[in-house]
Design a protein that fits this description.
single chain, 136 residues, alpha+beta, four-stranded antiparallel beta sheet, 3 helices, 44% helix, rod-shaped
Length: 136
C-alpha cells in the first residue's frame, strides 16, 4: 500500500485534516478555555472585596456623622437602629456585611464582619482610636 501525500489527496479531492492536527487544535482550545476561566474567577472576588470596603466606609461615615450631630448622637455613637431611624437617616438601610459593637458607654465602636463574603465572621474591620480617628 502506498501512502499518499497531502498534496496528492487534495488533488484527488480527498482534502481534510489528520487526527494529529485535530488533536492539536483541541488541546490549544482547552488551554485557552482554562486561561479564560481562571482569569474570570478573580473578578467576582475583587467585586466582593470592593463591596466590603465600601460598606465599611459607609458605616464609619454614618457613625461619625451621628456622633457629631447634636440632635442625634451628641458625642455618642449609635446602633444600626439609631442610624437608620426616620429622624436621623444616616444609613438608608441596615448593612448586612458588617455589624457595629459599641463600647465605653457608646463613646467608641468597632465595625465587625458579619458576612463570610468579607472574610472571617467577627473580624474587626474598622475601629476608632483614642483620638476618634477611624482605622480600617
Amino acid at each position: 500500500m502506498v501512502e499518499t501525500t497531502r498534496s496528492q489527496r487534495r488533488a484527488a479531492g480527498q482534502g481534510g485534516f489528520t487526527l494529529i492536527e485535530l488533536l492539536i487544535v483541541i488541546v490549544i482550545l482547552g488551554i485557552i478555555a482554562a486561561v479564560v476561566v481562571f482569569s474570570v474567577g478573580g473578578v467576582t472576588n475583587t467585586g466582593g472585596v470592593a463591596a466590603c470596603k465600601t460598606d465599611t466606609a459607609t458605616v464609619a461615615t454614618a457613625e461619625e456623622a451621628y456622633y457629631a450631630t447634636p440632635t442625634a448622637g451628641n458625642g455618642k455613637y449609635g446602633t444600626f437602629a439609631q442610624l437608620t431611624a426616620a429622624a436621623t437617616k444616616f444609613l438608608q438601610s441596615t448593612p448586612t456585611l458588617h455589624s457595629v459593637a459599641l463600647t465605653n458607654n457608646n463613646t467608641t465602636y468597632a465595625i465587625n464582619v458579619a458576612s463570610t463574603q468579607c472574610g472571617v465572621v467577627g473580624d474587626a474591620t474598622g475601629t476608632t482610636d483614642a483620638n476618634g480617628t477611624v482605622n480600617y
